[in-house]
Amino acid sequence: MQFMCLIYSAEGAGPQPDTPEWGPFMQGYVDFGKTVQDAGKFVAGDALQPVATATTVSVRDGKTETIDGPFAETKEVLGGYYLLDCTDLDEALKYAAMIPTAKHGRIEVRPVVVWDN
Amino acid sequence: MSPPSATQRVIEQTVRAAWGRILASLVKTLGDFQLAEDCLQDALVSALHHWQRNGLPRAPDAWLITTARRKAIDRIRRSAVHKSHEAELSHLADLANEPIEDQVIPDKRLEMIFTCCHPAIEGQTRVALTLRTLGGLTTDEIAHAFLVKPETMAQRLVRAKRKIALAGIPYSVPDADVLPQRLSAVLQVIYLIFNEGYSASSGDDLTRPNLSDEAIRLARTVADLMPSEPEVTGLLALMLLHDSRRAARAARDGALVPLDQQDRTLWDAGKIADGTRILRKSLASQRVGPYQLQAAISAAHANATSWGVTDWQDISGLYGLLFKLQPTPVVQINHAIAVSYAQTPEAGLAMLKSANDGSLDRYQPYHAALADLSARAGHLAIARQSYETAISLTENRQEQVFLAQKAAMLATRLS
Hints:
Helix content of chain A: 10-25%
Oligomer: heterodimer
Strand content of chain A: 35-45%
Distance between the termini of chain A: 17 Å
């Protein structure tokens, strides 16, 4: 099964660039990436630019509306994701708990739909 | 509807006893909770029909699981997606074609209870799901026990079964690194079921015995399957010891009778002996935990022939140990009460007050304890005020009556 691990945290929470905590924090991500790749669990993963760069688009009655900002204003925002291939939820949760941001943010874990055809 | 016949009752009992094991095995084979339950339900309908006519078969469990497997084949064939299930179908057909007498039902109940008590499932739903799947209670019975509409409970169970399937919640006993945490979630569910039966949180019934019995039955099952986990047997001992006082803790009019006024001849000596024996065996493993400590406290009460000879030194020491493992207000309140008997009411009061940092201001047991200890220490005005607060904080009628009586007794001392 593939599980999407969505990484949420409040902007400004956790280690910030140009602080002594930043280096070890980023190293944590490097280590995590290696762990899931070596275990054969890694499918994809990326970090996102800050929420200030978000643009939301919708189409109503054939008209495209483009709005500056995220879909919903929330304190904790999506900052990145990993797509992992795991045997079950327990394994996915085990890896999700190793994502460095889990220490100050939250990881939402959701299975990817498999279309039955 | 006519009253159930003797055969029907035997069938119901047989089914109840076998339900969890058969369902667990079907879920393992079919990989789907809802399908397994539907097929077992189909098999039950057939069983009622055949058994009432021909009598109970020699191996009713095997008969049920074979029939359920055949029903599963029918259901999968009828479904639109059966082409992707050819492998399962042929495996099922092999199983269903074995002679009924040769059927061995593999025991997958442990896998099932860990799935039902998975932290990815909402707390109350874990309780309902465990009662439905492992306990074999009907949706209506569970709805009645938790005072919700049957349709509400049915929806909750369907949603939970869907989540198990879609979220990839495994059907397995957890790995050693997460086992302690996950086992404690299982035990919490069982203890919740027991407590729901032992003291109904609202309404007139002081006890709903069926849920207490059900929790004990579940704990026995888990204890049989995990014999080397002392907290499992510790919980079983705790519930047996608590439950030994069932007949003594409610008066004929339903009012709550406190421990010091209970008629100890009404205590169930069999349950006390059973609980004490199981507790001793658990403690011998030297891996003490909160359930074993609570059972030891309950055993100290259960084995005291009268309130006057209660070993409060022992009980107070046990609460001290329990507080180290479980630093909760409930434990500290009970520790303070034990200290009030082991030492003096004033010593107990000092401990009780130090437990409240403001967070217990709306907590009924705190005010009930404060009232009792204040009364015994001679602070009657504080006691009266605390009883009033305690009464205002409970919705259980029996508890209100009990607290009001204590307050009235105090009034006679005040005047």
